[in-house]
Amino acid sequence: MSQFYILIAEDDADDRFLLQTAFDECGFKDKLIFVQNGVELIDHLFNKTNYNSDMGWPAFIMLDLNMPKKDGREVLKEIKENQDFKKTPIVVFTTTKNTNDIKRCYELGANSYVVKPVSYDELVRVVAYIRNYWISVSSIPT
Questions:
Q1: How many CA atoms lie within 13 A of 34 on its CB side?
Q2: In Å, how far from its chain's centre is CA 3?
Q3: Strand-by-strand arrangement of the 4-9 sheet
Q4: Taking the model in full, what pTM does it have?
Q5: Which of 19, 67, 59 shows the shortest CA–CA distance to 40?
Q6: What is the C-alpha R_g of the chain?
Q7: What would the pLDDT profile of 74-112 be if each residue is shown by its tens digit?
Q8: Domain ranges in the chain?
Q9: Chain center to CA of 91
């Protein structure tokens, strides 16, 4: 498999820590790259001066919806409209349970919509499932 990493857009420092810890607890050695808002995510993907070609491409993106500067919905739309990145799987990973938000994210091209679990044990389980699905199970065109 070609080199990859997992790109996670999460503005909350505690949630970033919990996600990193959950990936570690599952035994995954994947490179995780965290960005804190939608502007940083778009810059990471589209700004070639910051892009390190040795890193490969994101295997998938975990995207929070409610972030400062540029929210997840705007970012989702921008990524899915871009020829280079539109095939990159995006897992919306958010606290928002609103049916209209869920529907809108799928309309914008989200590949999955997951409501953040409340307990840490459930977070570990969900992280393992998401990671295994997008890395080991699914087939994504290159």
A1: 13
A2: 17
A3: 32-35, 4-9, 57-63, 90-94, 112-115
A4: 0.88
A5: 67
A6: 14
A7: 999 999 999 888 889 999 999 989 999 999 999 999 999
A8: 4-137
A9: 5
